[in-house]
Amino acid sequence: MTNWKKVNYLRKGETLEYEHELVLPEPLANWDVWDYWERERTNSLQEHLTKDDVIYDVGAEHGWLSVVLGRFCNVFLIEPTREFWPNIKQTWEANLDTKPAGYFCGLVGDKGGRKKINYSDWPTEVSRELIDKLKYVYLHDNSENLPVKTIDQIVKESGITPTALNIDVEGAELYALRGSSAILANGNVKVWVSIHQDLMGRYGHVRSDIFNFMESMGYDYELLGVDHEEHVYFYAKS
Q1: Contacts of 81 (CB under 8 A, 6+ apart)
Q2: What pLDDT digit, counting tens, does each position of 80-100 carry?
Q3: What would you measure as the largest C-alpha separation in the chain, in angstroms?
Q4: Over 80: is that where the pLDDT of 1 sits?
Q5: Closest-CA residue to 37 (of 174, 191, 163, 194)
Q6: Does pTM top 0.90 for this prediction?
Q7: Which of 36, 101, 162, 214 would you call most buried, defined as having the most Cβ atoms within 10 angstroms of its Cβ?
Q8: pLDDT in tens, 46-62
């Protein structure tokens, strides 16, 4: 039986006040980093998103950030690791009364397959047991034969057009962005990318490839912070 705890997230300066309260399963709830974890990215997301926005949360992992996003915008959940989906669903329902905008248990890349996906219901993987550790599935090593889609494909097939992307895909960031070319070309999409410089080499990419691509699509950027990875906010040039 999993224990759930209330967690204060993002401490306001040196006060004892916090930006958010989350209900999370143990041992995730027992992390000792909730005062500051990914503060810059989270603050930027909250600053630029509204209730009218639809964000594709690409790489939802345990689902705790998806819950934060779900409090101020509409969230389309995307996560390839099957084992994470019970965590995502139960964490969502422990914190929010609304439903996500959509669901995809699979990988995103610059080329997609033809498998038909039901984007309107929780994937069947939610019936599994919760996991208490991190587990990643990578685009370059899809040994589980997960479905692969481009973000543009997901938009076309689901009928749900995002106004924002939050991309955290463990080194495959450029592939995810290339697969979003059609919606990026509209110039109305806000994009947050977590850049994993140490993992990009497996795809033959370097950090500058991301910035060059986004510039070619008409986007400028703001460097938000560098901790365990680099967080960048891309926005259309005025």
Answers
A1: 61, 135, 136, 137
A2: 999 999 999 999 999 999 999
A3: 52
A4: no
A5: 194
A6: yes
A7: 162
A8: 999 999 999 999 999 99
Contacts 24+ apart (CB under 8 A), 230-234: 230/194, 230/195, 230/197, 231/38, 231/40, 231/41, 231/44, 231/192, 231/193, 231/194, 231/195, 232/192, 232/193, 232/195, 233/44, 233/48, 233/190, 233/191, 233/192, 234/190, 234/191, 234/192, 234/193
Cβ 154 vs Cβ 190: under 8 Å: no
Distance CA(75)–CA(165), nearest Å, equals 10
| Backbone region of residue 150 per phi and psi (left: phi > 0; alpha: psi in -120 to 50; beta: other values) | beta
Question: Which token pair is 68?
Answer: 């934060």
Kindly give, in sequence order, each residue whose CB lies less than 8 Å from that of residue 159, ignoring residues fewer than 6 positions away.
none
Taken as a whole, the chain contains a residue count of 238
